[in-house]
Amino acid sequence: MKIALLGYGKMGKAIEAIAVQRGHEIVAKIDLNNAAERENLSPDSVDVVIEFSSPHSAYDNLKFCMQKGLKVVCGTTGWLDKRTEIEGLATESQAAFFYASNYSIGVNLFFQLNKILARIMAPHQQYEIFTSEIHHTEKLDAPSGTAITLAEGIMENNPAKTSWVSNEIPKASEIGIWSSREGKVPGTHAIKYISEVDEIEIKHTAYSRTGFAFGAVLAAEWLRDKTGIFGMEDLLNEKAS
Ligand SMILES: NC(=O)C1=CN([C@@H]2O[C@H](COP(=O)(O)OP(=O)(O)OC[C@H]3O[C@@H](n4cnc5c(N)ncnc54)[C@H](OP(=O)(O)O)[C@@H]3O)[C@@H](O)[C@H]2O)C=CC1
Ligand SMILES: O=C(O)C1=N[C@H](C(=O)O)C[C@H](O)C1
Q1: Whole-angstrom Cα distance, residue 59 to residue 202?
Q2: Which of 162, 140, 171 is nearest to 55 (CA)?
Q3: How high is the pLDDT of residue 215?
Q4: Nearest to 59 by CA among 37, 86, 90
Q5: What is the CATH number of the domain that holds 127?
Q6: Is 88 annotated as contributing to ligand binding?
């Protein structure tokens, strides 16, 4: 399969390594230095574009790709206020758009565990909920996209929680997300339920970027023959059935 990498930083390079191992051809590697090469991407020359750029560039890249009718796997975080618009463009132009805040299979299992735990804990209001995420110091956005997805999973399953706040003491109806930036940490997410007498904690620790990159290549392989809007649940549900 012909893959174009839109964004060729830490993730672009990790994705390249996995894609080549799996027999795919990288037909473009685009970063800020050669951003104009984006103009050459077309459905005739590229099967799937994998977009891991920056919170500031993703919307413009995705708009461009959707208008061209390309198939895109996107992992960039911090731009999702414009997600509905991008999904609308994908539908209009019969393109394909696959988004996940985290492509790691382990994190997607952790998302499911988080929802189950939230449902079990919802009647037990003596437990306060704390979420935390730790990432490397080059990360541009906070909270992480993954932490936001985790907070959304709690809100879907606990009616007492209706919004989240970042790095501030939460009100009773809010979930507090605490972000810290340390060294080269690839990504660590935890949820704690704390009462006066005990605590319950679930945690996912990525050891490297390989898990994210593997999931993104898997998503590209899965998307190749599809049009529409998809996420990891679609891919994992199909693989499990
Ligand atoms: N969903 C997931 O599983 C994961 C998501 N991420 C997210 O992916 C994004 C990228 O992460 P990471 O690779 O670590 O970041 P890096 O900063 O290492 O890489 C970003 C790359 O994007 C390039 N870039 C910036 N603007 C443009 C543009 N307009 N056109 C093309 N390329 C551009 C940069 O170019 P240059 O080098 O020239 O500046 C750089 O090559 C982040 O939002 C991060 O949160 C990260 C890991 C997993
Ligand atoms: O920027 C990163 O590195 C990561 N970003 C994603 C996020 O914001 O959740 C996924 C992963 O945790 C690594």
Answers
A1: 33
A2: 140
A3: 98
A4: 86
A5: 3.30.360.10
A6: no
Q: Report helix, strand or coil for 20.
A: helix
**Does 7 show up as a binding residue in the annotation?**
no
Q: Is 114 helix (H, G, I), strand (E, B) or coil?
A: helix
* Contact 77 CB / ligand 2 (< 6 Å): yes
Amino acid in the structure at residue 166: S
At 148 the pLDDT is 98
Report d(CA 66, CA 195) in Å as an integer: 47
pLDDT of residue 239: 77
Whether the CB of 209 sits within 6 Å of ligand 2: no
Residue 170 domain boundaries: 105-205
pTM of this structure: 0.97
Ligand 2 atom closest to 206 (CA): 12
Return the ligand number nearest the Cα of 211. Answer: 1
pLDDT tens digits, one per residue of 208-218: 999 999 999 99
**Of 27, 180, 186, which is closest to residue 107 (Cα–Cα)?**
186
Considering its fold, how many domains does the chain have in total? 2
What is the ipTM metric for this complex?
Answer: 0.99
Q: For the chain, which residues score pLDDT lower than 50?
A: none
Query: Cα–Cα distance between 156 and 165 in angstroms, integer?
Result: 16
Both 192 and 112 in one domain: the answer is yes
The CATH number of residue 60's host domain is: 3.40.50.720
The answer to whether residues 178 and 133 touch, using CB atoms and an 8 Å cutoff, is yes
